[in-house]
Write a structure and sequence with these properties.
The chain has helices at about 60-70, 85, 90-95, 105-115, 185-200, 205-215, 235-245, 265-275, 295-300, 320-330, 350-360, 380-395; strands at about 5, 10-15, 15-20, 25, 30, 35, 40-45, 45-50, 75-80, 100-105, 120-125, 130, 135-140, 150-155, 160-165, 220-225, 250-260, 285, 305-315, 315, 335-345, 365-375. It is of the alpha/beta class. The strands form five sheets. Strands 1-2-7-8-9-10-11 form a seven-stranded mixed sheet. Strands 17, 18, 19, 20, 21 and 22 form a six-stranded mixed sheet that branches. The structure holds MU-OXO-diiron.
Amino acid sequence: MDLLSVQINDFLHYVGVNDRDTGLFENLWPLTNGVSYNSYLITAEKTALLDTVKISKLSDFKSKLQAALQGRDLDYLVIHHMEPDHSGAISTIMDLYPNVQLVGNKRTIGFLNDFYGITENIIEVKDKDSLDLGDRSLEFYTTPMVHWPESMVSYEPKSKILFSQDAFGGFGALDGTIFDDEINMDFYSSEIRRYFSNIVGKFSKPIQSALKKLSGLEISMVCPVHGPVWRKNPEKIIELYDKWSKHEVKDGVVVVYASMYGNTQKMAEIVARELAEQGIKNIKVFDVSKTHESYILNEIWEYKGLILGSCTYNNYMFPMMTQLVNVLEMNNLQNHILGVFGSFSWSGGAVKALKEFGEKGKYDLLSTVVETKCSATDEDIQGLQELAKEMAEKLKGE
Ligand code: FEO
């Protein structure tokens, strides 16, 4: 049975697909709710396909594309981004439509050869070049490092539609609903922020540059390559990406602990309770061995306070905490207050490593640090309460 495309307007069709099979995006980030690989077809005087999909979803993609084309040939394939979740079907499209011209920038052309050995039927475009499609056209804007160096977006000036590739995307398969006005955003808002924080948040500075470059465009619709199509409220997703990439954070504290036998967990519980006593409303506590760093990073991106506690494991942080810390370092987090605590049984290491992590990053590091031998003493408990108070005072003071 063939899947049908979705008509967006008189010249634009959604031919994207859902992926509910892949467990980990980039073989790293959990796809608990799946993901969509969005692709769009313009049927103007010329036809243009905007991006393809991951190769594993080729069958669904082909049937949607063929349905939308209604027997017409494909004139252009515009490649906004070469990560294989979007470029995977390029070779197949070239086989199916031998007259197709690929459209990309200089960096795209390099990747086409490096990934797929494709060197012919390519039109090179530069920043602010246009592609004439007859009664429609596309203007190109390069957006390097959102998400890769070749990344670019395109804009259809008559309809004011922005095709934004990874920018403004989100996790979560599209469950029948595709447009922002069809979707319960309570569910998607967390998945969109998780996609941002996991995949493109590291590139916040390039995102700010891209937003500046695009700020002069009037935008009626945002068509990203993952997640909902924003036709009712495109300014909403642009505002969110602006806020997140500026590292704007809310009051609240994420407490993350690593514990083997529960002693460090108890320390985290004491800290969390004291934060509540101090009037902090948004407190999220995670066991780093239970919750994947994808979800923890998502919450850390939202809240200003961060408290990390780890037991010592072979003279260092617990391995799962090391993994989280690596992810935090990779993401150049800013505007966060950081507190650390930990435990050891016969020789320390975890607290020293957490402190070094805090000193290396752009954190406002709390002066109170608690290190417990085996199980927290009354003095340690007081120290943990002090740590929570210092965090609360800083949050209230700012
Ligand atoms: Fe959705 Fe950077 O690829």
